[in-house]
Design goal:
The complex is a heterodimer. Chain A is of the alpha+beta class. Chain A contains 4 helices and 12 strands, in the order E-E-H-E-H-E-E-E-E-E-E-E-E-H-E-H. In chain A, strand 10 and strand 11 form a beta hairpin. By secondary structure, chain B is mainly α. Chain B has one domain: Orthogonal Bundle (Arc Repressor Mutant, subunit A), CATH 1.10.10.60. Chain B is flat, with a radius of gyration of 12 Å. Chain B starts with 17 loop residues before the first helix and ends with a helix. The chains are: A alpha+beta, B mainly alpha. The interface between A and B is medium-sized, with 26 and 20 residues.
């Protein structure tokens, strides 16, 4: 790499994070965003063998719901195309939850256990075996690890003077993360997205900081945000290396 | 029929919060907006999934 990027976290959680990256071009920022959505593979149920389904939903409808349940995916242990089997057997009256599924691999489990699959009435029975497959978001949206992934420019807010004496006091709405003159990073949610609240009585000027992007990343629970971002960047690097190799001949 | 597993627009998993939302805001008397805030359902695309949902399993089940 020609130079390093400067990464700073603004908000950090397992499934949701906001971080600032300096030294990016818009093309690379968008490349990372797209890699997070389409290139990082996750496990998701792809085919279901029904033993019995006497619920009010058709097999296909239940299979669709199962496909959308996120499964914890440890990317070190699987390659694209690998399969894991999960099974479920619930008799009514009860609700079949995603957490009722029994996995053949201990560390592959539904990321959320409270997702209702189907409500079963007296005498109804649901039993199936399902195969989860590791694939990328390119082939089906259920394999997307990233949810609501996006970025914005970092915005610099400078105080240029005082507001005129007879100012009408209109709010000055701004969204995203701002950088103050002291270099402090503040998300606009913290002051109601209104600059007149943060800088009362001051005239401010807002400008985009070149090459600084604030990413907002959420995952569906398959893995942590950290894993998602690192894998996305890795896949981008691998593709660039592949292109270099093919062109150099 | 059942609550969709994910939000149609953004793909966030919302079904896990449905039963709590139902018991507190639909059957209980709490303010739906506050319940959704507490559950962490922030975006209005995900919120409309919960607010506009109707369970139909009880309606359909006699006609098997």
């Amino acid at each position: 790499m020609a130079h390093d990027f400067d990464v700073e976290f603004i908000e950090r959680g397992d499934r949701k994070a906001r971080f600032l990256v300096r030294g990016l071009t818009p093309a690379i920022a968008n490349g990372i965003r797209r890699a997070m959505i389409a290139d990082v593979p996750t496990l998701s149920i792809d085919s279901v063998r029904f033993v019995e389904n006497s619920s009010v939903m058709f097999d296909e409808m239940i299979a669709l719901r199962l496909g959308l349940v996120p499964l914890t995916t440890s990317l070190d242990d699987f390659e694209e195309g690998d399969e894991v089997t999960l099974a479920l057997d619930v008799e009514g009256p009860a609700t079949a939850y995603s957490g009722d599924m029994v996995s053949s691999v201990e560390y592959v489990q539904p990321a959320d256990e409270n997702i209702p699959i189907i409500e079963l009435k007296e005498g109804q029975h649901l039993e199936f075996e399902a195969d989860a497959v590791l694939d990328s978001g390119k082939s089906h949206a259920k394999h997307q690890g990233g949810v609501a992934v996006g970025y914005r420019h970092l915005q610099k807010v400078e105080v240029v003077g005082d507001t005129p004496e007879f100012d009408d006091g209109e709010p000055n709405i701004l969204r995203g993360v701002i950088e103050t003159e002291d270099g402090e990073l503040i998300h606009t949610d913290e002051f109601g997205n209104d600059l007149t609240q943060q800088f009362p009585g001051k005239e401010v000027e807002v400008s985009d900081v070149p090459g600084a992007f604030v990413f907002h990343v959420e995952t569906d629970g398959s893995f942590t945000v950290e894993e998602l971002v690192l894998r996305a960047v890795e896949s981008l690097g691998l593709r660039a290396a592949e292109l270099e190799e093919k062109v150099s001949v | 029929m059942m609550i969709p597993v994910r939000c149609f627009t953004c793909g966030n998993v919302i079904a896990e919060h449905w039963e709590e939302f139902k018991s507190r805001a639909r059957e209980g008397d709490e303010d739906p907006g506050k319940v959704l805030d507490e559950l962490g359902v922030e975006r209005h695309c995900c919120r409309r999934m919960m607010v506009s949902h109707k369970d139909l399993v009880d309606v359909v089940s006699p006609y098997q």
